[in-house]
Amino acid sequence: MCAVTQVLRWAAGAPDFPEDQDFDDRELLDLIGQHALSGRLARRLPTGPAWLRDRLGGPVAAMHSDTQALAEAHIRAVDRIVAALGEQPPPVLVKGIATGLLTGDKHLLRCGDIDLVCADGGPLIETLTRLGYERTREPFLHELGEFTREGVEIDVHAYVPVPGYGAVRNADLTPPQRETWYQPRRAPSMHPIRHGRMVDGGTVTVGRVQVPDPCLLAIVLCAHAFLNFTNMWSLSHRAKPYVKLAELADVHALVQHEAFDTKRFLALVAELDAGDAVSWAGWASTVLLGRNPLPVPAGTGPFPRCLWWDFWARLPVDEETLLLPGWFDPAAVNPLLGSRIELDTGRPAPPWTVEVSRDGDLVTVMVGLPESTDAATERGRVDFGASGTEWVLSDGQLTAVGGHDTCDLLTGRRVRLRYRVPRAGGEMLVGVAEQDASGALLSAVLRPATWQSAARVGVR
Q1: Cβ proximity of 255 and 269 under 8 Å
Q2: How far is CA 194 from CA 81, 87, 158, 216, 242, in A?
Q3: SS3 (DSSP) at 336
Q4: For the whole model, what pTM was predicted?
Q5: Minimal CA–CA distance to 191: which of 213, 215, 164, 211?
Q6: pLDDT of 78 higher than 70
Q7: What distance in Å separates the CA atoms of residue 300 and residue 297, rounded to the nearest whole number?
Q8: What is the mean pLDDT of residues 139-148?
Q9: Which residue has the higher pLDDT, 19 or 269?
Q10: Once rounded to an integer, what is the mean pLDDT over residues 31-55?
Q11: Handedness of CA 243, 248, 250, 251 (dihedral sign)
C-alpha cells in the first residue's frame, strides 16, 4: 500500500493509522478532493498521527469549509427549484449531499454536481430554464441532460440504473490465441429505479430537498460505484478514480443509520436485481476499507469489466490503481485481449483502417471509414489508458469529447485525432462502431494498437 492510498483509506474509515510519510501534500490533497473525503478526514485527524495533523490539518479544514458552503448553495438551489415546480412532484436527490442530509452529519457532506431523479422531465427542465439554467450536456441514456447556472450543475435523471452482469459470465471470457475474438452479445442487466420507487419507501426532507431512505440510497450508491468500476470506457476522458472512497464510506454510514432495515434492504436487493452491485460493493469495502458492512456476503471475483459497448473481459485488478486517476495501463490490458475483438451482431464490421504515427511528442491517429454506409451514426474510441477520446460522426458532422488536441474530419471520410503524449512508446485501444437510427448497435470492433513508430493497420 503506497503512502497516498494509505492516507485515503484511513480517511474513509479503514482502521490502520497511516505510517508512511513519503507523499506530496498537494497530490494527496487533490486526491482527497477527488474522493470527496475532506469532511471525514477533518473528523479523523484529531485522533490520528500528529505528523499527519500538522501537515494536512489546515488545508483539510479549509477544504471541508468550502464543501459545507457549497452544500448550502446546493440546498438553496434545490429548494428554489422545488418551490418553482409548484404542484409538480418534487425530484429526489441522490448521491452528493444526500448521505450528509439523511444522517444530519455535516462531516459526511460531499458535493459535486446535483443529481435529481424526476417524475417528469418536461416540467423540471422547463423550470430550470425559467430559473436561468443553461443546458450544458445533451440527453444520454438515463440522463435527460445537464444544466448549469452560476457554477451549480444539475444532472436530471429519468431514473437511476442498477447494473448487473446478466448474461455476462467469466467462463466465456477467454480470447483465442491468435485469430479474431468474436464475442457474442452478452447483455448485462440494467434495472431502473424510477421516481415512484424512490418515494415508495418514504423520503427524508431537509427544507424542500428530498432524499431516499437509507436502504434505497445505499443501493443507489452501490449501483453507481459498481457501474464506474465495470465501465472502463466511460472514464476515458474524465479525471477521476474508478472507485470513489466516499461512496463506499457512505454505504457504511447508511447501514449504521437508525432507519436502516435489513429485511427491507434484502428485499430491495432482490426486487431491483442489485445482487451483483451489492456483492461487489461488499468486496470493494473489504479490500479497501477493511470490512464489509452490508448484510450480504462480499463477492469474490474476478469481476468482468466492460471495455466498450458490449465488449467484456476478465482482467486482473490492482487495488491501488482503483483509487488513482490513471485508470488502466493498456500495456497490461492489451495482451489479454488478443489481436482484435469483433462483436458478433450478425453484421460483419466494415473495412475500417487505423493509422498511427508519431512526430516527437505528437501522436496522430487516423481512422479511415468505408466510402459509404447505411448506418445512421458511426462512433469511435481512442484510449491511451490515462486519456482518450470518444467521437461521433452523424449526418456529416463530427463531435468529440476527450483529451485530444484536435479531432478533424478530412476528405475521404477520414477522422484524424492528434495527442500530446510522452516521447516513450506505448499502447492504446482503438474502436469503431455503427448504430442505426434508433441507436441500436449494428457492429463494433476493438483492437490494440501501438504508437512506437509509424504504422498502418487494418481493423479487418
Answers
A1: no
A2: 19, 19, 7, 12, 25
A3: helix
A4: 0.92
A5: 164
A6: yes
A7: 9
A8: 83
A9: 269
A10: 95
A11: positive
Choose among 305, 316, 302, 334: nearest CA to 446. 334
Is residue 234 pLDDT above 80, yes or no? Answer: no
**Top mean-pLDDT range of 143-152, 176-185, 268-277:** 268-277
Amino acid at 459: V
Residue that the C-alpha cell 471495455 belongs to: 307
**The predicted structure's pLDDT at residue 454:** 47
Contacts by 181-185 with C-beta closer than 8 Å and gap 24+?
181/337, 181/338, 181/340, 181/341, 181/342, 182/341, 182/342, 182/343, 182/344, 183/310, 183/311, 183/312, 183/341, 183/342, 183/343, 183/344, 184/344, 185/310, 185/343, 185/344, 185/345
Closest listed residue to residue 206, CA positions, set 318, 32, 79: 79
Summarize the confidence of residues 144-158 as an average pLDDT.
90
Stronger pLDDT, 170 or 298, i.e. the higher one = 298
- Three-class SS state of 228: helix
Q: Are 446 and 385 in contact (CB under 8 A)?
A: no
Taking the C-alpha atoms of residue 342 and residue 345, their distance in angstroms, rounded to an integer, is: 9
Taking alpha carbons only, the member of 16, 19, 63, 73 closest to residue 43 is 63
In percent, the amount of the chain with pLDDT more than 70 equals 96
Which residue has 454510514 as its cell numbers?
Answer: 253
Q: Which whole-number Å values give the CA distances from 154 to 81, 227, 371, 427, in the listed order?
A: 11, 20, 41, 36
132-150: b (≥16 Cβ within 10 Å) or e: ebeeeeeeeebbbbbbbee
Residue 169 three-state SS: coil
- pLDDT over 90 (residue 123): yes
C-alpha cell at 298: 462480499
Greatest Cα pair distance, the chain, in angstroms, is 67
